[in-house]
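During the reporting period the student researcher (J.K.) took over the structure-prediction task from the postdoctoral fellow and processed the backlog of single-chain submissions. One of the processed entries is reproduced below for the supervisory committee.
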Amino acid sequence: MNSYENKHLKFDTVKIRTNKEYLKNTFIKFNPRYKPNGDLINTFYNSKDDDRFIPYNLYIGISDKSLTLEFSFKVLLNDYPKLITKDSFKQCLENINQLVICSLDVDSIAEDCYFSKVHITNGIKYDLTDNILHSLNSCVDNYRRFKWERYRKDGIRFNKDVKSKSCKESIVIYDKEKEIIKNDDFLSVLNCPNKVISYFDGVTRFEMELDTPKKICNALNTDTSHISEIFSSNENPLLNQFNKIFEKTEIENKQYITNYETYAMNAIIDKHNGDIKKIEQEMKDLNIYSKNSRNGLSERMKKIKVLIRQRNERLYKSSGILADIRQKLSDK
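J.K. obtained the following structure tokens:
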């Protein structure tokens, strides 16, 4: 392994742009895409349109000057657990060549391409229970900025609640073993599907999607999205994103309910099962505080948030959950 290879930099999916000259030949007909005026934009191949059985997403686009490739780590087939890394990148391209769709200059692309989209991923040994998911939902530092939604029934996604696409951020957390077991089409083409399934036994997957070169450069602290810079980055983007979303404040170790005020707030918290957004929305709907008293509502929500933290610590040991995940995401 090269000294600059970053264990925290593994990709589920990548989209790269490179020189058209690195496409040596095509063996099937590519589909044309036209502008409204009839001018040709590019020609492309998409595995979704292929009559052959290719159980993963693969896109190849050819324009006047550039070649675009988008693929997931499923292209590695039996080496699927490797993910897309500095070490496995060439293997991904070689496997694409074996599909007899086109002939790629693997060495040249591996030395000279730019990433325009990446799904950064990391798997840790961690039992993702409903209590863990509930605790994570309740530990979001800024609950107004990051909202959560269920992901594939067994996981959870935290999204930055903004309108501008360029400012959107997210992290997805889910049980990888449950996800791969459901993918019968992909497992059917593997030589040892049970071996792959067992590899992901008890693995919780963390993912973040970066869909522009600017986002990639910001997350990896690079000047450009060229492959030489991307795979030389020393950043731990998933840990950074986790820290951005989830609180790092120490939980005060003191009595949970001390007076009527905290008793009443606790009753409200229990009514909504610790969902601070629902509590705030109900207060707004009931006009508990006038529109001219935003500070009153804000101060009340601060107190409720402290009680929710203490409640989660009592029920789930939430500070331990966050610390454990941070440690596992940091491990080298």
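The committee noted the following: Residues 260-330 form one domain.
J.K. will present the remaining backlog at the next meeting.
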